[in-house]
Amino acid sequence: MYFTIESSPIEVRHGLACLLACSAMRDLDECARGTAEIVLAEVLNNIVEHAYSEQKGSISIALCDLGAGVEVVVTDQGRAFPQEQLPQGKLPPIDTTADLPEGGFGWYLIRTLVKDLTYRRLQSTNHLSFVLPGAVTAADLF
Amino acid sequence: MNLSANVQNAYLVVTVNEDRIDAAGAIQFKERMREVAQTPSDRVLLDLSQVAFLDSSGLGAVVGVMKLLGPDRKLDLFGLTPTVAKVFRLTRMDTVFTIHSTMPGGLRQAS
Fold it and tell me: Any chain B CB within 8 A of the CB of A45?
């Protein structure tokens, strides 16, 4: 299953609705569906904000139902990650006596919620792949 | 970004009449909250019971609203739906806000 969207926040919103409705997502339970929407929103918004911050472009998303989850491959022709490596995705420190963070949560959420995360930069294209869990994961339990 | 707000007891109750606060709507949410929060009150209760989805931009906007209210005017949350609650829990932001699972006594949704 294959989708292409343009790089804007409103296109991401519409694209998420299509992705969540497609047949590869059909077997996810309600909780896993929520997780899938969080992850896909963070991945796609990150591409809009960073990879395509200076120019518009398209984002392709391929989904494959693995039975125990959904494999997702996302490609774009925007800028590479710095040093061609994914952010570490540490949770920003939360100190109520200091200035609370208003961002920096995206990669923490992605890394916490997916399995088998990989990134490669090939021929001016970013390739990101991961597996969305099909059922309850450790992250849902704490 | 459709918000309803009215003053009930010590609270300004703000009900979000949208099904999502996401990257496409986070700035509008924060700006609308800045406007409605001009109505004086001791505390603000944000009713998120209609919001099925919130991403990290939406979360950042809620934190931003808390900051713009200042240290003397508390922002409480009510009615977190399962996916919204998950985002608050995973990011530990559930430790920052007072989150009510039922409307605090005597209050009702703003309409």
Answer: yes
Question: pLDDT grade, residue B92 (50/70/90)?
Answer: very high
B28 reaches A (C-beta below 8 A): no
The ipTM estimated for the assembled molecules is 0.94
Q: What CATH number matches the domain at B3-100, 3.30.750.24, 3.10.120.10, 3.30.300.130, 2.20.28.90?
A: 3.30.750.24
Segments forming the whole domain that contains residue A33:
2-141
Alpha-carbon A40 to chain mean position? 4
What burial class does residue B19 get, using C-beta atoms within 10 Å of its C-beta: 0-12 exposed, 13-18 middle, 19+ buried?
exposed
Listed as ranges, residues in chain A with pLDDT below 50 are none
